[in-house]
Amino acid sequence: MRVLSGRVALLVVIAAASAAASTPAPSAPVSSSATAGSELTALSLPGAPPEGVVLDYLAVDRARHRVWVPAGGTGDTDVIDTRTQEIRRVEKFPTTEVERRGKKRMVGPSSATVGDGVVYVGNRGDSSVCAVDATALTRGGCVTVPSMPDGLAFIARTKEVWVTTPRDQSILVLDVSNPAMPKLAGSIKLDGEPEGYAVDDGRGLFYTNLEDKDRTLRIDTSTRKVTATWMPACGEGGPKGLAIETKGQLLMVACPDHVEVLAAMTDGRILSKLGTGEGVDNIDYLPGRRLLYAAAAGAATLTVARLDEPGALKQVAARATSKGARNAVATDDGVAYVADGPDGKILVVRPAKGD
Description:
The chain has strands at residues 11-13, 31-35, 38-44, 59-61, 66-70, 77-81, 87-90, 96-100, 103-107, 109-114, 118-123, 128-133, 139-144, 152-155, 160-165, 170-175, 183-189, 194-200, 205-210, 215-220, 226-230, 242-245, 250-254, 258-263, 270-275, 280-286, 291-296, 301-307, 313-320, 326-330, 336-340, 345-350.
């Protein structure tokens, strides 16, 4: 999830609670196929052009049965009702055209995190983070940050949102004590490019990777100090997403073609590894079921694995998806939503009996 470009600005923009368009869009599944006993359907994102959409982080609001899809150059953040598959839209986020590896593309909303009655949306189109009412889908205040945002993580203990900004090798801290009006409250300078995140609110710990240095960091959310640095040995591609089992302090680190489990309670040693196929980015974890979800874009596969108490991952399912599909999130009933940016869709993968 490397950022595409940056802009230097430090301006807080407080938008009066303006209603965002939330008209239901046609969202019936457009395709369906059986995969080893599971069911896969695809939801077309409204306004997606033929060349696809730049999709990055998704966010699942399990309490409200919704999946949030910041839909890049469409300028919308799409919100899927996981009970009905209806799609509603929070519209008119700024977009901009950027060039990466000689190819031009439109970027816009790209990340989201669920806060206290509010969902925060990071936008690469104007380097902003905006608050959106989690129920009414109306937009509140926005803050412009000094560098293009990548991942967002809500820290309940300190009432903050932490924003990874790889271009500036830093984490920006937003004060969200007033949930609808985020404001810049500080930054944490790092020795590399932060990628991915996991939060242990109970212990006041934040985890991120340095993708360019092949390192994993533990940071105290109160002091904002790095308290441990570990070596996941992911290789040249570096570590990607993260997930945490807080009960045993088992930290799952996504590498380009596998997931590792680190002993986060002690010395960060590698406890186990599980192959996933090439192209893993962000991952998700269901604590109640102890299930990990890792979608590999290159391998076109969704791997579901169970985490045992000693820290070993055991594959329980492997589902065919689509080339380029990545960054799965999962609902409480084990249904996975996978970002299929090249086709401008979200893949919905329902578990087979026994999974």
